[in-house]
Specification:
Blueprint: H1 2-18, H2 20-25, E1 28-36, E2 41-44, E3 47-51, E4 54-59, E5 64-69, E6 76-84, H3 88-93, H4 97-106, E7 110-113, E8 116-120, H5 147-159, H6 165-177
Parallel strand pairs: 1-8
Antiparallel strand pairs: 1-4, 2-3, 2-5, 5-6, 6-7
Helix pairs in contact: 1-4, 5-6
Length: about 180
């Protein structure tokens, strides 16, 4: 009977020394990261962690900046915060100063919030700008515009990104041929 009592006392002492949160849920936490559409690159604090969907085992005591990137979509970013774990209350209730200290040092004191990240990625592509076809050499110039004015309009379209440099040059040469 004495050995059973000693075993029980030893287990209680071990729990008090170990820290309630450390024993109950440990120093790491699983965080689920997913996206629509799937396959986004996961970068956490600047380090690559694979593609979505993914379940990661993260240390509770850290802050994390999660960035999701997928070609053709706007990047998504969220900061995972840490909050006090409800299990820490066990140490306070039982007056376990050693347990509170241990949980604070090893990170079991905290939980990561949110523990699930679900991102809807927004496409970056916009419908292409419509450009009126340039009159060919046989066509008449737009009413009231000189070739010089048309060249200025063409340059504005290039500067605005509506025309590619190749399109600009081809249309410019047509207009210069009319001078």
């Amino acid at each position: 009977m004495r050995s059973v009592t000693r075993l029980i006392l030893a287990c209680c002492a071990a729990l008090l020394v170990a820290g309630c949160a450390s024993v109950i849920h440990g120093t790491n936490q699983q965080v689920t990261i997913s996206s629509t559409p799937t396959g986004a690159h996961i970068n956490i604090n600047g380090q690559y962690y694979g593609r979505t969907p993914r379940v990661l085992n993260l240390r509770r005591k850290e802050y994390y900046v999660v960035q999701l990137e997928l070609e053709g979509h706007k990047p998504y970013e969220i900061t995972l915060q840490r909050a006090l774990s409800p299990w820490t209350l066990g140490n306070v209730v039982f007056g376990d100063l050693i347990g509170v200290t241990l949980d604070a040092v090893d990170g079991a004191f905290y939980r990561i919030h949110p523990s699930t990240v679900v991102a809807t990625l927004t496409p970056t592509h916009e419908p292409p700008a419509r450009v009126a076809p340039m009159p060919g050499p046989a066509s008449a110039a737009p009413a009231g515009k000189t070739v010089e004015q048309q060249l200025l309009d063409l340059k504005e379209l290039l500067d605005a990104g509506v025309l590619s440099p190749a399109e600009y040059e081809a249309r410019r040469q047509v207009l210069v041929g009319r001078l």
